[in-house]
Amino acid sequence: MNEVLRDRYGAKLGEIRQEGSRKVIYDRYGARLGYFDGKYTYDRYGRKIGEGNLLVSFLH
Question: Once rounded to an integer, what is the mean pLDDT over residues 11-37?
């Protein structure tokens, strides 16, 4: 299931895609920003960011 994230004007900010057991977030240009493995959130380099789904925090 893909979830498109939009701002209040309807412009696309990013997208969260289910890839196997992970949820992966991409920016509006398709660049991978990070992923959530079901317990922890990681950035694009594989560094642990925190516990829980923090994917939307990558969008700014």
Answer: 97
Number of other CB atoms surrounding residue 34 within 10 Å = 21
Mean pLDDT of the chain, nearest integer = 96
Amino acid at 51: E
**Rounded distance, CA 26 to CA 29, Å?**
8
SS3 call for 57: helix
Pairing status of strand 22-27 against strand 32-36: antiparallel
- Say if residue 35 is exposed, middle or buried (CB neighbours under 10 Å; 0-12, 13-18, 19+): buried
Residue 42 has pLDDT above 90, yes or no: yes
